[in-house]
Write a structure and sequence with these properties.
The chain is mostly beta strands. The longest helix has 15 residues.
């Protein structure tokens, strides 16, 4: 049920007053973390890999819902270097990698932005550093250090008490609290890291201190970590939409050339630094009352340079030796030289970061037969890409000193811009005459357009809950609550269009600016793809560009088309009942949420604002039936919803009046909605072993796809009578979708110290798009994970394997089909002393690559190599 109208916004300034009036001065909190660790979960205090798996298994077994868990082995010993790497070992979960580390997760056949990632049960504000990416609702996992996470719970079936917004599943990241661990707990670690792509050594540090008084009524925990890694990716890529670049020549019989604008040899290098801080204080003045105050700060700095040596068929003078495949795509050809048909394009971005602050105050009062709880908090995030340089360097023999040089009104020519290429497999490129390793053969020609993107996100929330113990038939408790939540996402974009003047760069030959020569790029794909070329000294160049900024020679103006605000006020109410008998248990409930959404932006340069309102009724049922002491059958059914990406909700249009076209977002988009059901079987054939399977189905409504339709838009077209025929491209609700799947899991630990875990997931996903039925982007039909380990009093070791088959991704200008991908990881820890551990870990040991192809023509799109990463760590617990 949805209602679209305009009404006054619910402002969060009233939340604190509302909460105080409901709860008084001695009230409480009820985040998922507290609930999940309450009556339904048996707590086991253990250490090591074996103990961690036992505790995770215990969480799954005693939960009323369909839940999987990952538990830290001990303080500072999360089982993977990245939270996303750990999540991919859960059935039904695959991960999204853009620059090596995981930054998003896909759960049960839904897109990454349709999964919720919560911190101690609450939404975390999040932005992205990538200036060209969409503004999504996904919490970027690159921000959070795995060392500060004590455990993860993945809710595959919702409960009414859990915050809405997940179409696939909800991931709850739990941190430690001082009253729950031993007093005087201290840990420190130092770690060296190295990536095989750039072979630079980095040092990281972390520490944790936790104290509580003797009567355990007051405690403080502080944790801090700083992680550094020089890494990136090497890519053979195509840039631009696949289309006809040259017509067929009937005289010579040459076929038409269909391909991308250019082919690039990319070397992306980033000096990543992640800083995480936690400060938690707890006060329990009585056995019934407890207060908790949390503060978190996460910061991710990612200064980087993206070197790309481009062979540009879209600027070529013609094509010869064209060979096309059966679908009309060009497999190989020779491009005749033209001005700037070879471009070396280094993009230097030194001010790239994301930062998140979270403040959360909770309280809980345990009465005789009830629990009263509440929470109030705020999360803010800011970041983006600010300042930078994107320069073009072309063959030194090309005529003219810059693009569109006025000294050459009849055009410019080139003798060194020719090349041949092959797109059957990873790109192979051969230059006709230029030597890419000789910096003196390239000169500066253009400082390209550059856009600064600044993003801010603020989330405020307040929640009040009460849970009563009851004795009514099979029902054991009833809980109800209210949550007020506001979210404001703002994106400001600034464009820079410097004058391309002769003399912009002193000594414009690359030989005067080079930092050396790349060798051995793309080592895991076939040779012949520009695996060596001279590169720019980024530090020397950045010093030069920074001076241009200071002198006012590089001026940024606001890009209104990419600047917008999405402001949301959400009110949620729920009621949930727990039930139990001799053979079954579970919960049933309903959540009602009203969302008021205001989008602000610009339409053809003029301010634009629109407010819509919609509500959702979300019932849920979870049932666990004990076949016997060791076997459980589960059933779950629910209605869920997921809000759209902020970019898709961007208001206003960018109008091209001459062509009668416009592009933009769509504030009127309806949220994704789905009805879903699960049935699962679990067999716990020993205290540390389990075999399970689950069937799940989702029926999805309001699928969003970008499409072109005729609309009435003022000023869209040369004449007013043409304005009602404006061809507008924007995201729209285009239809429905279905997701069906099955999961298998097995875990067994032997008395010898050996153990194994494996899972397999099959997902059949299908969405309506303007072009017809399509797979859900980011979703593989088949995925498989397994790990084996050995542990005794001296060592803990593990080898893990992850595999997924092909999936739809997004290339430079169109969808692509990624080939199957697999990855091997391994770790070994030596318990050198009672409190000292030395560990060695390798990630992506075989340096696997991601390969993709264009969907329409079956041509190579990308070959991405992330490299292997290695970590040597020493940690001491006092």
């Amino acid at each position: 049920m949805k209602i679209y109208n305009n009404k006054p916004a619910l402002k969060l300034s009233s939340i604190a007053v509302t909460l105080a009036s409901i709860l008084g001065t001695s009230l409480s909190t009820s985040a998922i973390a507290n609930e999940a660790e309450a009556d339904d979960t048996e707590v086991i205090q253990v250490r090591g890999i074996r103990g961690s798996l036992k505790e995770s298994l215990n969480t799954k077994r005693f939960s009323n819902s369909i839940v999987d868990a990952i538990t830290s082995e001990d303080i500072g010993k999360f089982p993977d270097k990245n939270i996303g790497d750990a999540l991919q070992r859960i059935s039904g979960v695959t991960v999204d990698r853009q620059y090596g580390e995981v930054n998003g997760v896909t759960i049960r056949g839904t897109a990454p932005e349709q999964s919720r990632i919560l911190l101690n049960g609450q939404t975390v504000a999040s932005v992205d550093w990538y200036d060209l990416g969409d503004a999504t609702r996904t919490f970027n996992l690159e921000l959070l250090s795995a060392e500060q996470v004590s455990g993860i719970e993945v809710y595959k079936s919702p409960e009414a008490r859990i915050e809405e917004g997940a179409l696939g599943g909800t991931v709850n990241l739990k941190t430690r609290q001082p009253l729950n661990i031993e007093a005087h707990t201290y840990m420190a670690s130092v770690e060296g890291s190295r990536s095989s792509l750039y072979e630079e050594n980095d040092i990281s540090y972390s520490g944790l201190a936790s104290w509580k008084n003797e009567d355990e009524s007051f405690g403080i925990l502080a944790a801090y970590s700083i992680e550094k890694l020089t890494s990136g990716r090497h890519v053979r890529e195509s840039i631009g939409e696949y289309k006809q670049q040259f017509e067929a020549d009937p005289v010579s019989g040459e076929e038409a050339l269909v391909g991308a604008w250019s082919i690039g040899s990319q070397a992306f290098k980033a000096e990543r630094e992640r800083t995480s801080m936690q400060l938690t204080a707890q006060f329990a003045p009585t056995e019934e009352l407890k207060f908790t105050l949390d503060y978190f700060n996460f910061e991710f700095d990612n200064p980087h340079v993206n070197h790309n040596f481009l062979t540009v068929m879209g600027r070529g003078a013609g094509a010869e030796n064209v060979v096309n495949n059966a679908r009309g795509g060009t497999v190989s050809a020779t491009i005749l030289p033209a001005y700037a048909s070879i471009i070396y394009n280094p993009v230097v971005r030194h001010a790239v970061n994301m930062e998140v602050d979270v403040t959360n105050f909770t309280a809980e009062y345990q009465g005789d037969n009830y629990v009263l709880s509440g929470v109030i908090g705020q999360s803010t995030s800011e970041g983006g890409t600010q300042g930078g340089s994107s320069s073009w360097w072309i063959p030194a023999t090309d005529e003219g000193d810059k693009i569109n040089d006025p000294n050459y009104p009849d055009g410019q020519t080139s003798v060194d811009g020719g090349f041949s290429y092959n797109a059957d497999g990873p790109y192979q490129v051969t230059l006709t005459s230029l030597d890419a390793t000789d910096a003196s053969q390239l000169k500066f020609a253009h400082e390209a357009n550059y856009e600064t993107t600044v993003q801010d996100h603020e989330v405020n929330y307040a929640q009040a809950d009460i849970k009563f113990d009851v004795d009514f038939s099979i029902f054991t408790s009833i809980a109800t609550g209210i949550k007020l939540n506001s979210s404001k996402f703002e994106r400001d974009a600034y464009k820079r269009e410097p004058e391309d003047v002769i003399g912009f760069v002193p000594e414009p030959n690359l030989a005067n600016w080079t930092g050396g020569t790349f060798t051995g790029l793309h080592s895991e794909s076939r040779s012949g793809g520009l695996d060596s070329y001279a590169y720019l000294d980024e530090d020397k160049w950045w010093g030069f560009i920074s001076e241009k900024y200071r002198n006012g020679e590089l001026i940024e103006t606001r890009n209104l088309g990419n600047s917008f605000i999405v402001d949301e006020d959400m009110t949620a109410l729920y009621v949930q009942a727990e039930f139990e008998s001799d053979d079954f248990r579970g919960n049933v409930g309903v959540r009602y949420v009203d969302t008021e959404q205001t989008s602000e932006g610009f339409a053809d340069g003029n301010p634009f604002k629109e407010t819509v309102d919609y509500d959702n009724v979300l019932p849920s049922l979870n049932l666990a039936y004990n076949l016997n002491e060791d076997m459980i059958v589960r059933f779950a059914a629910s209605s869920v919803m997921a809000r759209n990406n902020y970019t898709d909700l961007k208001p206003g249009l960018s109008i091209n009046a001459n062509f009668g076209t416009a592009t933009g977002g769509n504030p009127d988009l309806k949220p994704y909605e789905a009805d879903q059901a699960d049935i699962a079987f679990e067999w716990y054939f020993s205290e540390e072993s389990m075999l399970s399977t689950a069937l799940f189905t989702k029926s999805v409504e309001n699928v969003v796809s970008k499409s072109v339709e005729e609309e009435y838009v003022e000023n869209c077209g040369p004449e007013e009578d043409e304005w009602d025929e404006c061809e507008v491209k924007r995201p729209r609700n285009t239809g429905d979708g279905t997701v069906n799947g099955i999961e298998f899991q097995v875990q067994h630990i032997f008395e010898s110290g050996f153990g194994a875990i494996a899972n397999y997931t099959y997902v059949d996903s299908e969405l309506d798009t303007p072009e017809g039925k399509s797979m859900v982007p980011g979703v593989s039909e088949n995925s498989f994970n397994f790990s084996v380990f050995f542990e005794n009093d001296v060592i803990s070791s593990r080898v893990a394997y992850n595999w997924r088959d092909e999936w739809i991704g997004v290339g430079a200008a169109q969808e692509v089909l990624n080939d199957a991908y697999s990855q091997w990881d391994a770790s070994i820890t030596w318990h050198a002393m009672e409190n000292l551990d030395i560990s060695l870990e390798g990630v992506n040991l075989t340096n696997e690559v991601v390969e993709s192809n264009d969907i329409n023509y079956g041509l190579t799109q990308n070959t991405i190599e992330f490299g292997s990463r290695y970590y040597l760590n020493a940690s001491y617990k006092f």
